[in-house]
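LAB NOTEBOOK - FOLDING QUEUE
OPERATOR: T.R.
BATCH SIZE: 2
PURPOSE: Compare the predicted structure-token outputs for two unrelated chains run back to back under identical settings.
PRIORITY: normal
REVIEWER: second-year student, initials M.K.

ITEM 1
FIELD SEQUENCE / FIELD STRUCTURE:
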Amino acid sequence: HTHCCDSAEAVLRLVVTALMGVAAAAAAILLVNDVRSTRGKKEETELMS
């Protein structure tokens, strides 16, 4: 392996790790929003019935 490839691999791993972190954060936010909206809809349907 040449030095250039090693540093490229390190950068690639860093980027992948960062992307996974962002994806996990986005998934968590979406999950929280989904739970909130579902709770809101449940309250609305209970009020309507």
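ITEM 2
FIELD SEQUENCE / FIELD STRUCTURE:
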Amino acid sequence: MGVSATVHYHVVFARDPETASVVAEIPALQIADYGADVPEALERLQAMAIFHLDCLVQERKPIPTEEREEEGFYLRVTLPPHAA
């Protein structure tokens, strides 16, 4: 992958019934985070996705990819430079 490689992941949203927080999940990475609203949940999820992918690179594990076939929201994640 090039230095500025990006990947896109389908994001699923839900509302936590107990806290009313918005939960954003990337099923392909098996990660999720929350926020008071959608923008905050996405910001936190983006940071978590970058960290998760960086860990996979450091552990020499493959970066999961997925086809953009489903309708819905996709989060674009720029891979860390050393993931090239």
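REVIEWER COMMENT (ITEM 2): The chain is about 25% helix and 30% strand.
FOLLOW-UP: none requested
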